[in-house]
Amino acid sequence: MSETTKVQIDLYRATSELIKQRLVGLSEEQLAWKQAPEKWSVKEVVSHLVDASFVHSVRIRSIVAENSQAFLLYEQDAWVSSTKANQSDLKDILAAFDAVLAYNALFYERLTDDQWERKGLNQGKELTISDLFQGFIRHVQVHLAQIQRNLDALASNEHIKR
Asked: What span, in angstroms and rounded, lies between the C-alpha atoms of 124 and 70?
């Protein structure tokens, strides 16, 4: 494995720590608050990242093991709703994220250069495993920003109430 790949896998693993750092000190109210019924709470965002990790795991393995072309698709809002994340302990959600992340990182570490370039189809668009890998890291960043927007909206809402 190249040094660049090792660094990238470390960035992948670090996504969990980024999430945990962002959630330090948040109350149960802040974690479960929703700006609107159709919006996600902070817990639901983190739960979505667990779901996305599961789907990501299936996608990368089916490309390598089965030369599968079509990606597993899922309805993220339905999955988030069905998890009932706001009734869960954040520690349990984070433990699940850590477990899937660690398992996928081990898989990535064993890939050959050729396997990193294998492709699958996401709604007609070809993506390599390398693309999926980078996309997952960006996906976490998108949801960290979403968490911040939730917290900003909550703070603004609390200010209005007073």
From this structure: 8
How distant is the alpha carbon of residue 153 from its chain centre? Answer: 22
Written in H, E and C, the secondary structure of the chain is CCHHHHHHHHHHHHHHHHHHHHHCCCCHHHHHCCCCCCCCCHHHHHHHHHHHHHHHHHHHHHHHHHCCCECCCCCHHHHHHHHCHHHCCHHHHHHHHHHHHHHHHHHHHHCCHHHHCCEEEECCEEEEHHHHHHHHHHHHHHHHHHHHHHHHHHHHHHHHHC
- Return the CA Rg of the chain: 17
SS3 61: helix
pTM of the model: 0.90
CATH 3.40.50.2300 applies to domain 3-161: no
Mean pLDDT across the stretch 72-78? 91
CA-to-CA distance for 16 and 98, rounded, in angstroms?
6
Query: pLDDT tens digits for 108-128?
Result: 999 999 999 999 988 888 999
| DSSP classification of residue 159 | H
